[in-house]
Amino acid sequence: MGYFSIALDGPAGAGKSTVAKKLATKLGYIYVDTGAMYRAMALHFIRNGISAEDSGAIEAACETADVTITHQNGEQVVLLNGENVNGLIRTEEVSQMASISSANKQVRLKMVELQRQLAKQENVVMDGRDIGSYVLPDANVKVFLTASVEVRAKRRYDEQIAKGMECSLAEIEENIRERDYRDSHREFAPLVQAEDAVLMDNSDMTIEENVEKLYEMCMSAQN
After folding, report:
1. Handedness of CA 81, 79, 122, 103 (dihedral sign)
2. pTM more than 0.90
């Protein structure tokens, strides 16, 4: 009996990680936040004073970074060289570095290898940009989650304000547009809806409605 895998793709701010986490809990599966893995790698580059444009240094630094995901007390913990970096990888600086450095082929190959290993060992819900199209092409359920740029920016803005962070809605919207363009235009494993993925626009859905709909899809795929 092979393991069951669910691939959730979509652009920045579509609520993938929130939905994926809740879905995994409901199914009793492991949630693999691929974005957090790229963010941990980005933090490694920032700590080493590497510029996002220096692809040579980025490729060399890949070799000195070990990024893994474990689960402690039901919560996902991202480890960078053995250190829990959960609290350090959600800044705007890390987001930007992750978006640029994740276009580097060596960075992606290193991560993909790790992600495929996880899917061979557990039932997983994995979210990212190219899970259904590239990382797990044989996933049992594939969904492409999206929402309008305005809705996505507002969600990100509300999230940061709730955390007491200062931010500008216009700036976040601009960043999201830039990321969409960059993620969908990169040469290697771009953000793309897999041919066999279901498109789901959740602009007008609550998180709960979204999770419920995905849960029903998983149940019918299992039967």
Report:
1. negative
2. no
The per-residue pLDDT string of the chain (223 residues; one tens digit each, 9 = 90 and over) reads 579 999 999 998 899 989 999 999 999 898 988 889 999 999 999 999 999 999 999 999 998 998 888 878 777 899 999 999 999 999 989 999 998 998 899 998 989 988 998 899 889 999 988 899 999 999 999 999 999 999 999 999 998 899 998 999 999 999 999 999 998 998 887 899 999 999 999 999 999 999 999 999 999 999 8
Cα 16 to Cα 12, 102, 148, 200, 206, distances in angstroms: 8, 18, 14, 11, 13
Q: Is 127 left (phi over 0), alpha (psi -120 to 50) or beta?
A: beta
Question: Rounded to whole angstroms, how far apart are CA atoms 156 and 99?
Answer: 16
Please give the structure tokens belonging to residue 172.
């976040």
Q: Which helix (H) or strand (E) is 67 found in, with range?
A: strand 67-72
Here the tokens at position 222 are 């299992």
Q: Residues for the chain: how many in total? A: 223
Q: CA 23, CA 10: separation in Å to the nearest integer?
A: 16
